[in-house]
Amino acid sequence: MNRKHLVTKSCTAALSLLMLASTSVVCIPNSINQPVFAATIKRSQEPAGQYQINESFPIDEKDDNPRFDTWSLLDNINRKFYGFKGQGSVWVHSNNPKKFSLYINGRNIKLTKVGRNKWVKLDISKYTKNGNNALQISPQKGISASDKIDVKLPYPVLIDNTKKYRDNDTFKAMDKLIKAEIKNGYPSAQIVVIHNGQIIKRSAYGRVNAYTQDGKRIKSAPKVTNTTLYDLASNTKMWATNMAIQKLVSEKKLNIDAKVNTIFPTFKDKASDKIKGKTDLTIRDILMHQAGFPADPQYHNNNYDPNNPNKPKKDANPVYTQDRNNILEKIIATPLQYKPGTKTIYSDVDYMLLGLIIEKITGEREDQYVENHIYKPLGLTHLMYKPLEKGIAKNNIAATELNGNSRDGQISFNNIRRYTLQGQVHDEKAYYTMHGVSGHAGLFGNASDLAVLAQMVINRGGYGNHKVFDEDTLDEFIKPKSNNPSYGLGWRRQASNAYGWAFSGLSDASTVGHTGWTGTLTVVDPHDNTAVILLTNERNTPILKPETTATANDFAGGHYLLSKYGDIASLAFAAVNDDKQSANDAKLISLVTQRYNEIQKNKDDQTNADKADLCGIYDAVVSRKHNKAIKKFLSSSTGKKITAYVKANRSAVNNVRNRN
User: Which residue ranges does the record assign to the Beta-lactamase-related domain (predicted)?
Assistant: First the structure.
C-alpha cells in the first residue's frame, strides 16, 4: 500500500468534518448574502464555452483521481480565479443545492433559491477584487454520495468606464499633445488604455489619409474613428502568430522543442552551406529569434543584393520569389548568418516560418485559422487580414506609404506598387511574396479589439467563456530568455527597462508587448493589470529630402514624439496613477525643453519635421497657459527662447519633407 493510499484512508473522516465545519465560519449580513439571479436556464441549455473554473464538487476521493489532493485537503474545496473589483459571475447547477455552500473571497452566497437541476447565473461582483480571488465550495451536513454541484466561472471581460476618467488631468494633457502633433503634421492615432478590467481611455485623432502623393497636406479626408483599422505590421507576430502558436501548444498539438524538420522534412542543411544548423533547428529557436536567419532577406525584391544591401543590382537576389508556394523552399535556401543559439537577431524570416508551421499543423491558412478559431469566438470583428476583401471600406482603414513601396521613387523591383497604400498590407514580403497573409505582418485591427486580446493575456489565457491557451503556456512564452531578458518566446519584454523607450519606464519588468514598423505599439503589464494600445500610421508622411537608397526609410512621421512611443505610454501609466495637474505641467515643460535642446545640439534633429514636432509640443504646453507653472515657464528666459524659435519656424509645418 503506497503512502498516498494511506493518507487518503486516514484523512477521509477528517476531511468530512472539515467540510461540515466550514459552513459556519463566516457570518455576513443577509442583505449582502442574497445572490442576484441574472439568468435561469434548464439542464438542456448548459452554458457552452470554456471557463476559468469548470468543475464538479465534491471531488471523488478515489485513489486514482488526480483532482483529489491528499496532501493539501483544503485544495479539494478551494479554487483560485482571476477577477476584478465590481465584476464577475458564476454559473451553478446542482441536483441538491441545499447541501452546498458557495463562498467568494470568504463571503457566503446562499444557494437556497437555486432550483434543482437548473443552471443559474449568480452575480458575484460585490465580492470580487483585483487580481487573484478565491472560490470555495463546502458540503453541508447530511450530504449523500449522489449530491453534486457543478460550477462554471468565466474569465473577466472589459467594462467601459471611460466616463469616469474624462476629467483625468493626464488624459487631458495626452489629448492636447496628440491633437497638437496632428495639427502640426502628424497623420493620425488611435489609443485604448485598460486597467483592472476596465477601458479607461478610448480616443481617435486625425484623418485616415494625411498627405497627397507629392507631400501636400490633405484637409478633407475622413476622420479616424475608434473603428478605423490600422496596418499592425510586426504586431502581427504577437496578436496573430503567437496567439495561434500558444493555442496549439496549450492544446498539445505542437511541441516547441520539436525540430522544424519533423514538420517540414526538407528543412535540412545542405553540404554547401557555410554555416550549418537548419537540421537541428527547433521551433523554440525560431520563437526566440536565435535561428540564424538574417533580419530581412527581401524575398520580394529581385534587385536586392545581399552582398551590398544599399546598392540595388538587377536580379541579384538569389532567394527572390513572389510566389507564396515557393517561400518554404526559399527560406530553406536562405544562408544562415550565425550558428543558431549563439546570438539573438530579430528576424522576419522566423515568423514567416512560424506562420507556415501553423498552416501545416492546422490545414488552414493562417488568416483563416486565427479569424475562425480565435477572433470570431471572441466577437472581434475589427481584427483581420486582407480587410478590403472582407467588406471593410477603404475610408475605414488608415493609409500608410504615399507612393506604394517606392519610397518616393528611390526603390524599384518587380510589380512594385506606386499608389497610396490603404487597406493593403504595407510590408513588402507580406504583400508580394505571401500574398497578404504572413506570420510576420499582414494583420489589420483597431485598438479596441487588440485591447480584448491584451486583457486575455492579463486574464492568463481566456476572455469571457472562451479559453485560448492555458496559464502554464502563457508563463512559458512570456518568461525571460536566459541570455537576453528583453525577449520571451516571441514577446518583447520590459525586463530592467530594456524596452522602456517604447513600453515606458513606469511599466513593470514583467511587461510584454511589441511594436510595428507602420507605427503601432502594444504594451501589456500583467503585474498592474494595465495595457496600452497605441496605433498610428507614421509612414503616411513624405520621405525627407534629399532621398537616397540609404536614407529611403526616413519618413517625416518618424521625427515626431508620437512615433517614439514611450512618452505616450508613460502618460498612460501616469493617468492610471492619477497624476495631478502640477505633475503633468512639469511633464510638458520637460518635453518641450528637451526637444528644443535636441534640435539645438544635433544636426540630424534640425529637419522641418523635427521643428514641426517641436511646434506641436509647444502648442500643447501653451494650451495650459492658465496654469501657474506653465505661465511661469513661458515667461522665463528658456520659455521665451523656445517661443521665439517656434514663431520663426512655423513654416516648417507646411513642408515637413525638407531637411532644413
Answer: 175-541
